[in-house]
Amino acid sequence: MGFKTDAIHAGQEPDPSTGAVTIPIYQTSTYVQEALGKHKGYEYARTQNPTRTALEKNMAVLERGVAGYAFASGMAATNAITQLLLKQGDHAICSDNVYGGTFRLFDKIVRHYGIDFTYVNTSNLHDVEKAMRPNTKMVFVETPTNPLMSITDLAAVSEIAHRTGSRVVVDNTFMSPYFQRPIELGADIVVHSTTKYLNGHSDSVGGVAVLKHQEDADRLQFIQNAAGAILSPMDSWLVLRGIKTLPVRMEAHNANGMAIAKYLSERKEVTKIFYPGLPSHPGHELAKKQMSGFGAMIAFDLGSLENAARFLRRVRLCSLAESLGGVETLISHPATMTHASVPIEHRNKIGITDGLVRISVGIEDLADLVEDIDNAFDGDSPRTLRTVAEN
């Protein structure tokens, strides 16, 4: 089936008892068993829930894996993956520009279990190869990275990692499976914060991991049940509902993202812009090769904390908030928000400056977004939709 068809139907057969087209919210903690050792596949809701099962099957199809498992948050999914792949004495490689929560998990928690992490620019294949060790068990990649939008060659990194039997894990939150499918490019595990584009409406928190190998899937299912950080039936239903419109939303996000990136690249106040859809981006050609769209995540540097703070005070339609991927435009200051847990010396080294602003472009009318950003810069006349489109 095509992606749009799978987004609507995969894992979602009509309810057998009522014929309901939409998967019900099975808000139950347990299930009646017919007799000792005899049940209909469901015993206890931490272990299985029909609503969650539908979401997990749907995501496995969309990401082209053998199975998927949904968790209470994206970080819960990432943590479960570390329990799957890493043990004391192991080594892991991670993109040096990842979401601050990922860095916090690895550096402040997982590392203390005797696991060593090396942070490298995974877009530089030489650096990845140099960092590999005989005990490297996981290469964790964000592409595009959060927030600097660096692009990693997933096929090449997977080839390097697999030489020593290391698993490649890709955080695909920014692109969604609509624009990028890492398993098809060689990755072993894909992780998402379902809070973001998959749900798309900023009304649910969750995470999902999709696996390429059955042995990994079986083990992760055990971890999910044993540790218990499961996604609730209500949140599973909300994500399923969101995925039905994922293709049309991502197309709208992509169109607005490209237009806003072009507009920002022309503003004299912007000293740097990070968006893989622009030909000036160093990963542009690779992005065109392994992604079918460029998405709606943009970072741009205004030169100083004072400039960034003034700009963020003036926006009105763009909401100053953490998170991303909702239909509404969200704007944030990575150094004090999403990446505050990253040491300042590391932030400065990789380019997360005090002047950096990140915007998750929503699907509002483009002219309204441009006017809001124009007014935040303060001084120029609002530009029309026609002006932006012509550029």
Characterization of this structure:
The chain is an alpha/beta fold. The chain folds into two domains: 3-244, Aspartate Aminotransferase, domain 2; 247-390, Alpha-Beta Complex (Aspartate Aminotransferase, domain 1), CATH 3.90.1150. It has 15 helices and twelve strands. The chain has helices at 3-9, 50-62, 74-85, 100-108, 125-131, 154-162, 176-179, 214-227, 233-244, 246-265, 284-290, 305-314, 344-350, 366-377, 385-390, and strands at 67-71, 91-95, 116-120, 136-142, 167-171, 189-193, 207-211, 272-274, 297-301, 319-320, 330-332, 356-360. The protein has a seven-stranded mixed β-sheet with strand order 1-7-6-5-4-2-3, with helices on both faces. A five-stranded mixed β-sheet has the order 8-9-12-11-10. α1 runs antiparallel to α2 and α3 crosses α8 (214-227). It is globular. 48% of the residues are buried. The model is unreliable at 379-391 (pLDDT under 50).
